[in-house]
Amino acid sequence: MKRLLVASAAAALMASAAHADMKVGVLMGFTGPIESLTPNIAAAAELAMKEASDSGLFLGGKKVVPVRGDSTCVDAAAAQAAAERLITSDGVAAIMGADCSGVSIAVANNVAVPNGVVMVSPTATSPAITTLKDKGYFFRTAPSDARQGEVLAQVAKARGIKEIAVTYTNNDYGKGLSNSFSNAFKAAGGKVALSAAHEDGKADYAAEVGALAASGAEHLAVFGYVDKGGKGIIQASLDAGAFDRFILADGMVGDSLIEAIGKALNGSVATAPGSDSPNAKKFQDAAMKAGVKGESPFAAEGYDAAALIVLAAQAAGSTDRAAIRSKVLEVANAPGEKIGPGELAKGLKLLADGKAVDYQGATDVALDDAGDASGSYKEYEVKDGKFATVKIH
Amino acid sequence: MPVDLVNALVLLANFVVVPAIAYGSQLALGALGITLVYGILRFANFSHGDLMAFGTMATILATWQLQGWGIGLGVLPTAMLALPAGIVAAVLAALAADRTVFRFYRIRRSSPMVLSIASVGVMFVLNGLVRVIIGPDDRSFADGTRYLLNARQFKEATGLAEGLTVRTSQLLTLAVAVVAVAALFWFLRRTRAGKAMRAYSDNEDLALLSGVEPGRVVLTTWVIAASLAAVAGSLYGLDKSFQPFTYMQLLLPMFAAAIVGGIGQPHGAIAGGFLVAFSEIALTYPYRKFLRYLLPEDMQPDGLMQLLSTDYKLSVSFVILVVVLLWRPTGLFRGRVL
């Protein structure tokens, strides 16, 4: 009996060694306040992994296997438990995620960095992440909100808004964005009449809206989440007739908002990371063919985050966690041959031959030394019940 | 009247009076159920909030079914048609809880504290059930015409700077609450079963000697309390939005309402409901714009003129509760219960 056990254990070991695929964690809030966005982000990331697997060129024919975990976007304890499971039980080589800034910081500080696992977040946009003590393990393909705040302030100014009330979801993301927006808006000569936090998960936001309306401003900037408090704030504002034009940030760009609010949202403006470069177009076409909604917010960033992990592993020539870390910036930046979306096979081949690549991807990735993407933003306006792109910043 | 004064009053009506009336009606209906159970079954029923959630959940499921069949009420929300399903579900849940938990302690004549603690257990079970069946997320089930009076239309029609909104759900809440309360009072005062309930509440042993059947009184109490819970919960969900957790949070203002009015006093519960609702909203509303209409220019305030931040809304009920228990433990209305 004992011998049989030893034999089967050895067989199992050999079987796993023969395949030795690279597992990559996909840590996204599949439940929680951005649950309508995350399926598309995860699908885009898994598209990049599939592309690498199918090419047959990744580390001599290995496969890249996604393993999903639920970050919940807001519950740091749950996100850490999920990350812990990915790292210790599933043995992932790196993590594509997490999504919301608060849980991303928690996972990085308490799980990923201590375990020496690279995280590439497609969505964590808080300015606080730039200065995170991550020992170089944390990267993001989404630009920092320090920049989004400036862009939003420009957009508001360009539309002739002089006085504005700001409400933000009470977490790292909301606070960071509201600070950078308020500073930029004031610097541009505007007035922030009131900046107040709102808690997610309330049934009724009439009181919060009453306070915002009492500030005397006629426009409201909402930096919250599309499936939670942000939607409640907009609904309550329209109900009370307090505001009817809104300035929205990336967490609010989602079709579920328009479904819930309807045509009353027409005329509101929003920004979210994105560009109209040829690469973005190329990615969307490729995604559509694979049945993934490529135009959904952060889907392109998700694809790029996964692609960076794959290319870094290829450049390192192994699935070793620390080796991946040392190569991320190298494959993301010049010099090297430019690699667009859908060209992972080409990139893998070049790296295998010992040549350098500069991964451009769907969002024209370039990472600075802190691991932050520079990134560009799309300005949307709600027209005829749709988020229509009006400009690229 | 000068225009500024009218504007100030409309502003206050829009942000304080109208929302508080709707919210007060919802609290009053909930507090009535709590007060009935306390008056007759003699314990503080903490599961009442989640009984509301349970009834609302059934209403929502029935509403979706009706919407699927294409049945609606036109301008009124379909949920009104689905309300009987919610009531039946809440009644069945309450009776099941009574049969499995509360009856056991009642027969042993356990102390009210034991029953109250048992009701906390029932609360968690009900809440878990609701989350398993319909999920923990926000559910919106309002349809029909949303506004009776729209802020923009009001502004255009009157030429005032301030708008006034009255939502269908707000008026509906008030109307349903008035009907439910009137029916309850009629039942308690005029019918045999109602009189039996009052007798049982007044003196249990004397009532039993006079031929009041206790089983029936308990049954009637649960049916009424659960019906009120389902109606209150559905109206709250319709007016605001449905999330299983928010009903647990409603427990505090509802208990405050019942205790302020004098627990066991139906008219006290109604008065308490409105008192708590108006305090919560009026104390957290910033009066800056209101005062700007009324005060001369050099006296206009710069601050928000807000007594309490909106974050402290829930604590208003706490303060009311503490103040009442310290200075007038019997509540506003004294005397015999029911």
CATH topology of chain B: ABC transporter involved in vitamin B12 uptake, BtuC
Q: What would CATH call the class of the largest domain in chain A?
A: Alpha Beta
Range of helix content of chain B: over 70%
How much of the sequence of chain A is in beta strands? 15-25%
Ends distance of chain A? 68 Å
- Tell me which CATH architecture of chain B applies here: Orthogonal Bundle
Which spans of chain B of ≥5 residues are poorly predicted at pLDDT below 50? none
Can you tell me the CATH superfamily of the largest domain in chain A? Response regulator
Q: Could you tell me the mean pLDDT of chain A?
A: 88
Largest interface comes to: A-B, 26 and 44 residues
Shape of chain B: globular
Number of alpha- plus pi-helical segments of chain A: 13
What is the alpha-carbon Rg of chain B in Å? 21 Å
Number of strands of chain A: 14
Number of domains of chain A: 2
Structure description:
The complex is a heterodimer of chains A (393) and B (338). Chain A contains 13 helices and 14 strands. With 393 residues, chain A is α/β, with parallel strands linked by helices. Chain A folds into 2 domains: 21-142 and 277-359, 3-Layer(aba) Sandwich (Rossmann fold), CATH 3.40.50.2300; 146-266, Response regulator (Rossmann fold, 3-Layer(aba) Sandwich). In chain A, the strands form 3 sheets. Chain A has a 7-stranded mixed β-sheet, with helices on both faces. In chain A, strands 2-1-3-4-5 form a 5-stranded parallel β-sheet, with helices on both faces. In chain A, helix 2 (38-55) links the parallel strand 1 and strand 2 (64-70). In chain A, helix 5 (145-158) packs across helix 6, helix 7 crosses helix 8 and helix 11 packs across helix 12 (321-332). The longest helix of chain A has 18 residues, at 2-19. Chain A is globular. The model of chain A is unreliable at 13-18 (pLDDT under 50). The radius of gyration of chain B is 21 Å and the shape is globular. Chain B contains 13 helices and 2 strands. The model of chain B has no long low-confidence stretch (mean pLDDT 90). The relative contact order of chain B is 0.18. Chain B has one domain: ABC transporter involved in vitamin B12 uptake, BtuC (Orthogonal Bundle). Chain B is mostly helical and 338 residues long. The interface between A and B is medium-sized, with 26 and 44 residues.
